[in-house]
Input
Amino acid sequence: MRIRLWPFLPIAFLAACSDFLSPVESTPEPSEYEFNYWLLQRTYLYEEELPNLPEKGDSVQALYAALSDRYTRYVEPSKSEAATESRNTSIITGDIGLEYLENQEAEHPLFVYRVYPESPAARAGVPRYGNIISINGTELTGPNAYSTFRAVFSQSADIELEIAYDGETKTYSMHRESIYAPTIFVDTIQGIEVISIREFKPNTIDRKKGTYGELRNHLDSTKSDTSVRILDLRGNPGGHVDQCIPMADLFVSSGTLSTRSWMTFDGNGNRTRMETSTKAKPGDPGEAGKFVILANSGSASCAEIFIAAVRELTDIPVAGTTTYGKGIGQSSWNTIAGGLATITTLEFKTPKGNSYHKKGIVPDYTCTDGINIACAKEVIEKHFHKPLKKGSRNSHAQDSAILRISTPDTTYSGGAWTTNLLF
Output
């Protein structure tokens, strides 16, 4: 149900029977510009900039461009539905559900790194770590193998991959479709379990509980694991607050997970500031485990909320480099004309009341020779005084950049006339 919030006049409830009431002229609907101006005046975090906004105008984009905050933005009505879907879900359109790695030393450099569950590739039986020889009859060799793959992939809805694996070469036929990508991945690298948390979304391969559900399911299934594991948040750009805070709670038994204050409006449409804190609850599956967090300068926003909560309220250390430093968050609104307004409204503090905006979170252990699994492994030995076996590295699991044909948007927003918190 959409509730008209304009012009926020109080409503008087009158007796049903009266001979003295007559209809009044309805208030004209505001223009798209007027509505966005009104919304910014009441919810934009940086109040000192608001006098600079022109009250009258024709271009909503120009209105938003007058603000200094690059996270506050407007999406035109024609693009708002697609933007909302990509921000709230892990859907990848026109894909087969594979991630790839390149090894330029190989004759055919392209390899299958991951096969997404419930995808065309999974149904076709594509093997993980298989070497891709050709796509739709085009052989993939040399330094341009991946760009050739992309070009051929984009030209057809039907994909045939010739893949060599375990001494055999087979052809796998697939049809591109929209798929839900996982946002949690688990691998064993150098003998250590690595739980990669890529982003925080409410609708992923777990349709009901999103990224939180993916992580919770894995922790529930590994309650008896006494080994030290890595929580890899390198390059995690953030996401929904209602995902990252409950996910931090999975590892924290007590304390204030996060405190946020934000600008909003009251029932009369007046600008007002609110504040709330989220408390941890005991009894979750990550509380008894041993973990190290791996982070870098690409760990931002909701990832920093997660990192700060777990680090300050548990014995879980952070390894890597200083994080990005985004201690502000956005609320998202569907507008009068069906556009999408994403406005910076929130400020966040760590459990100990610290601000990390524009500063980042400094790790407990700095990785000097690369922010990688090898560094996290050294931290495990130092922090937990636990010598690790020098077993051989898993020849398949990788600690390097992956390649994808399609990448979902990594910013986030919400639904009609609600204040969905993004970070």
